[in-house]
Amino acid sequence: MLDKLALALVIIGGLNWGSIGIFGFDFVGAIFGGQGAIFSRIIFALVGIAALWCISFFFKRNDVIDRGNGS
Fold first, then answer.
1. Please, what is the Cα angle at 31 between 4 and 10, to 5 degrees?
2. Would you say 28 and 44 are in contact if contact means Cβ atoms under 8 Å apart?
3. Among 10, 23, 27, 35, which is least packed by CB within 10 angstroms?
């Protein structure tokens, strides 16, 4: 569950950075009162923590479970 939450936050952050790069528009800042607003800074911090968490995905084993064909 924590992995999915972290991944969702990283995707939100990536989309926000993409909108800044392409359109010059900060969605998080616009929604939560500007880049300097405390709530925006909390969101940015959570996205950064989530990105650090997602680094661990590179080191996890990706085991595939063979469930067969159901027969």
1. 25
2. yes
3. 23
**Amino acid at the residue 53:** W
Residue 3 CB contacts under 8 Å (≥ 6 apart), including other chains: 53, 57
Which token pair is 48? 């950064």
Q: Whole-model pTM?
A: 0.75
CA dist., res. 31 & res. 15, Å (int): 14
SS3 call for 26: coil
Task: Write the pLDDT tens digit of every residue in 11-53.
Answer: 999 999 999 999 999 999 999 988 899 999 999 999 999 999 9
